[in-house]
Each structure stands twice: as structure tokens, then as C-alpha cells.
Amino acid sequence: MARAGLTTERLVQAGAELADEVGFDQVTVSALARRFDVKVASLYSHLKNSQDLKTRIALLALEELADRAADALAGRAGKDALIAFANVYRDYARQHPGRYTAARLRLDPETAAASAGIRHSQMTRAILRGYDLTEPDQTHAVRLLGSVFHGYVSLEMAGSFSHSAPDSQVSWSRALDALDALLRNWPAP
């Protein structure tokens, strides 16, 4: 029988908060049970196992990110849209480091196809329409943007840019300017 007050949604939200506090890799059903001061077995009516919990946290993170990105992109185009989109990812990673890691969890194809990950791709492609890219260049550009955003954010979160001037915000702005210039002048194959 399920413990009163515990729902799958509440457990996933608490798991996401735990991920932000201690790191996504440390999130388990056992750790969540300790947080609620319940026996692990009482959570199995809501969650299959730790992998199910992590998958649900990943889906929550993808949804949160997609919602923030959609809000940031409303009414924007071109470089303005690119910068707004990039800043959503960077800000989310800073505010929710565990959830940001969760959003990178490899999902099975069926789960991925039903996730907000599709919205991320659609929004990225919508931004790229402003740069007049066609296939396969559009796919290359989607991969480039994801790599730059994730790579920069990951290095910054690891402290890689905190040891020297200029401030990493300056470098971030320069990187986005460079991406905009590259996208406007995409090289021919």
C-alpha cells in the first residue's frame, strides 16, 4: 500500500532537488527513501527502481528546459533568438546542476521520442531557419550548437574558467557572437 502523501510526481520532484544538491549520480531510491524517512519498499509502489527514478528526473528536466526555452524564444529571431536559447541552457545548468546532468541521460528510443527532447530539436531548428540553412547543414548546425553550449557550460561548471581573466561571461558572449557569424556565413560543403 502506498504511503499517504507520496505520489510519483512528488518523489520525482524530490529526486530532482536531491540531484541538484548532491549530484545526479548520487540519486537512488534508497537516498530518496531517507529523504522522506520511509522504508525503500514503500517507494516501489511509485517507482520501479533507481533507473526509473533517474529517467523520470531526466524527463522532468527536459520538460523544464523546453518550457524555459520556449518562453525565451517567443518573439525573437536570428542572433537574438540564438543568444536567448543559449542563455536558457547556461542559466538552467547553473541553477539546477543535477537536473542539467539528468537532461543528458541516454533514454531508450521510445522514451526519447515521447519526451520534450523533440521540442528542443524543433526549437533549435526554428532558430536555424533564420540563418537559411538547409539539410544536411541544419543537422550539422544543431549538433554544433548543442556541443558548444554543453561543452562551455560543463567546463564553466567544473571551474575551468575561474582561474584567469577575462570573466567567463565575456568569453560566453564572444562564443555566441562567433556562432552567429558562422551560421550567417555557413561554409559550403
TrEMBL record:
It comes from the Bacteria. Transmembrane segments: none annotated. Residues 5-65 form the HTH tetR-type domain. The keyword Transcription applies. InterPro entries: Homeodomain-like_sf (IPR009057), HTH-type_TetR-like_transc_reg (IPR050109), HTH_TetR (IPR001647), MT1864/Rv1816-like_C (IPR025996), Tet_transcr_reg_TetR-rel_C_sf (IPR036271). Keywords: DNA-binding, Transcription, Transcription regulation. It holds the Pfam family TetR_C_33. This is WHG domain-containing protein. Residues 28-47 bind DNA.
